[in-house]
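Example A, followed by Example B.
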Amino acid sequence: MKKGSKRMTAGAVIAGGLILLAGLFSWLHQPGDFHALSADDVAASKMSKAVYHKESLGGSDAVRIEFVDVDLTKEQSDELLSRIGKQKFSVRSHMENIPGSVRAAVMFELPFNRELRIQYNGDQVYLTRTNAWGRVDRTAIEQDDLRRFFDEQLAGAFYGGNDPEGT
């Protein structure tokens, strides 16, 4: 009777371990599960934006694009995470690539090699989510507050002025 109960206990432990591993694998494999993010979940964050300059090059005008880092406040990071985490946006479409040039982006590094990027091309806001195995999910979203945030960050980035036409 003791041998049978030991086998039963060992079998239950193995089965429990397999269930736990399957749950962990499933959790890590979900690229879109960012509902409960907070600043405590973020290992690192950074923002960058494109700044356009006109230059004279050999008698003709040229454009130089410089990518600069932007310091985000804790409040700005928390607000961005809150907007994404609470799904305060509507999904327009899923896509393979982001059309046009990304003018500004915020990147949040998360545990287990996961990453969340909020990107803006002057017209549309995109979420790019990467899971622990490198699977990428890109989504075009509608969220006016995020668009306003990026427009404010990009003020003066186009030849010293604003770019109201999105060109």
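Example B, a separate protein, is given below in the same form.
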Amino acid sequence: MNDEPLVRGHRVTYLPGKRKPGPQRLCRRGIVTGPPVLDTDTDVTWVPVQADGTHETVAEWVPTDAIIDVVAPT
């Protein structure tokens, strides 16, 4: 991941955490839906991401160390 701060609209590729129902993939893609949040207890920064192809209204929280590629909105 590059050093540019993540903001709403960035497209990200990330490694999924827990297995979810349906076809399993090595990577997922999605769009950042809000600002990153630092969990000061664990020192992990989490990013809300709406995964491509989902219709869920709640974003998936992805740790920044699981994000492997970022593309800024155009």
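On Example B: The chain has one domain: 11-18+25-71.
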